[in-house]
Amino acid sequence: MRRTFILTLLSLLLVSTCSMAQVEQILGDWTTVDDNTGESYSIIRIYRADNGKYYGRIARMLVDDGIGKCTQCTGDDKDKPYEQLVIIRDMTEKKGELVGGRVLDPETGKIYYGKIYLKNGNLVLRGSLDRAGILGRSQTWKRTK
User: Fold this and answer.
1) pLDDT average, residue stretch 6-12
2) What is the model's pTM?
3) Which candidate, 135, 126, 121, 120, places its Cα nearest to that of 98?
4) What is d(CA 16, CA 87) in angstroms, rounded to the nearest whole number?
């Protein structure tokens, strides 16, 4: 009985360590790609804040839209410059993915439920209207070199 308990405990520790390692790979700079043109659009920096939650902000714009600020945003984000705008908020780690937060689309000012995970070395951001992630779309970002 004691052996089974110890093996179960070690297995849980290993699974926990693996999922945290997966999240550590998500942190850092990612290049977004425009869905229509395939052009690199911006660099997003994903980081863990002091409160233990994960966030993402626009570190740098790679294209100039002529406006430079979030005119479609509401609340505190209204008319903030794109650069340094926090577009991913309040994500938490669950099974090697970031979930439960919100994602801001700065072009439309709309806020979506978010989920972030790695697939084939790229980052996948899923924004959806529903918490389950059924009604939405995904973007694939590439690691910034």
Assistant:
1) 46
2) 0.83
3) 126
4) 27
